[in-house]
Amino acid sequence: LKVLIKVLLQVLPCTAATTAQPCSHYCTLKDIEFSYSKHYNKVEYVKFSSSVGKFVGYNKHGIYTAERANNNTAQLAGWRAQKESICKPNIEGYYSGILSKKVEPSRVTLRSVTPPGGKHTHMLMCSVYGFYPKHISVKWLRDGKVTTSDVTSTEELADGDWYYQIHSHLEFTPRSGEKISCMVEHISLSDPVIRDWDPSLPESERNKIAIGASGLILGLILSLAGFIYYKRKMRGQSLVPDFWQGGVP
Fold it and tell me: What residue intervals traverse the membrane (predicted)?
């Protein structure tokens, strides 16, 4: 995991030249690096990094600038101290608030999909959404035992909002009475999340049943509403005198 935290970004008066002072953090707080670089027309020409401990030039002007800076021992010592004075105080705050954050998966689904064709007739897809940090384990269980045969998985896919998703597929040929499950393990979970596959009905049939049930409920609601409206209307009509049947003129 590489997190680039720009502590200071200063644009110089010359529109073509920029100076940047970023702190880079890789895996742990021990991996912090401070770097300072100058660019002209989007081309970096000189750079200082705490891992090298001095300025390095990348063109004629950059080499000249680096030599002058490296010969100034007092100034060079100040640059070498930037890692402790700038990077660590800021990154420790980010680390506690963001980098050590743990978010449980927001959703784990297990569904049947069309197999690509081959020796197996069925395929299941287990999808995990909205987790952080990135590393996660998705395993398939057949009758409670982990299986790795005919399993393919995507990499952890970034959602662009710090969260991730992953999808794992299992190709198989059903066996009578077999129980197939998807097990998800993540640092945010105290216990694994397990989703069991219900082969009693194909997913298409379950969808048809769900749609039919929804339609039936909607029909009953509309029928009841129509009946209530009809009764109220008839009750209102019965209170109006009938002129043709001896009503009061």
Answer: 209-230
Mean pLDDT of 24-32: 64
Q: Which of 69, 78, 74, 84 is nearest to 34 (CA)?
A: 84
Tell me the pLDDT tens digit for each residue of 184-217: 999 999 999 999 998 775 555 556 556 766 778 8
Burial label for 76, CB within 10 Å (0-12, 13-18, 19+), is: middle
If you search the block for the tokens 């990154």, which residue do you land on?
Answer: 91
pLDDT value at residue 84:
86
Cα–Cα dist 139/182, whole Å: 6
Q: Give SS3 for 199.
A: coil
Candidates 152, 136, 230, 144; CA nearest to 186 is: 136
Name the least confident of 89-103, 151-165, 182-196, 214-228. 89-103
Give a three-class secondary structure readout of 201-218: CCHHHHHHHHHHHHHHHH
Q: Taking the mean position of all CA atoms in its chain, how far away is CA 110?
A: 18
Are 164 and 197 a contacting pair, CB within 8 Å? no
| The pair of three-digit structure tokens given for residue 36, joined into one six-digit string | 């300072």
In terms of CATH architecture, what is 107-196?
Sandwich (2.60)
- CATH 2.60.40.10 spans which residues of the chain? 107-196
